[in-house]
From TrEMBL:
Subcellular location: Cytoplasm
Note on cofactor: Binds 1 zinc ion per subunit.
Binding site for Mg(2+): D86, D88, D90
Name listed for the protein in its UniProt record: Phosphoribosyl-AMP cyclohydrolase
Cofactor: Zn(2+); Mg(2+)
Lineage: Bacteria, Pseudomonadati, Pseudomonadota, Alphaproteobacteria, Sphingomonadales
Superkingdom per UniProt: Bacteria
PANTHER family with a match to the protein in the record: HISTIDINE BIOSYNTHESIS BIFUNCTIONAL PROTEIN, HISTIDINE BIOSYNTHESIS BIFUNCTIONAL PROTEIN HIS7
Top enzyme category: hydrolase
Protein encoded by which gene: hisI
Protein role: Catalyzes the hydrolysis of the adenine ring of phosphoribosyl-AMP.
Family in the record: Belongs to the PRA-CH family.
Classification via InterPro entries: PRA-CH, PRib_AMP_CycHydrolase_dom, PRib_AMP_CycHydrolase_sf
Keyword S-adenosyl-L-methionine (UniProt): no
Enzyme Commission code(s) on record: 3.5.4.19
Length: 125
């Protein structure tokens, strides 16, 4: 990448998402009211476009190899209020309004345990 394009990506106003070798970028969903991290997933260009078009968080499911609307079966969608882009445009933070638990386990957040020595300990809600 030239110095000009690096400067534009890092300092400019153009949205120039930088996908990795698998065509993905990291997307972190954060509750827009509580600032709690709800989940981390990956987006490809299709998921990013669909999220921007609908206002609902879409991701690329690596296990299923396809587009995935968060909440497509549970109804626990994530309504995107704002998308923030990191300095080199390879990661996103989405400020969202969750319509129910974000984790497939039923927990409010996928981050419901903490490391305690060599064990995981459930965090109280």
């Amino acid at each position: 990448m030239s110095d000009d394009s690096t400067a534009e990506r890092e300092q400019g106003s153009a949205f120039l998402p930088r996908f990795d070798g698998q065509g993905l970028l990291t997307a972190i969903a954060v509750d827009c009211v509580t600032s709690e991290i709800l989940m981390v997933a990956f987006m490809d260009s299709e998921a990013l476009a669909k999220t921007r078009e609908t206002g609902l968080a879409h991701f690329h499911s690596r296990s299923r190899g396809r587009l995935w609307l968060k909440g497509e079966t549970s109804g626990h969608v994530l309504r995107v209020e704002e998308i923030r882009v990191d300095c080199d445009q390879d990661a996103l933070v989405m400020l969202v309004r969750p319509a129910g638990p974000a984790c497939h386990t039923g927990a409010r957040s996928c981050f419901y345990r903490r490391l305690d020595g060599d064990r995981l300990q459930r965090i109280s809600d």
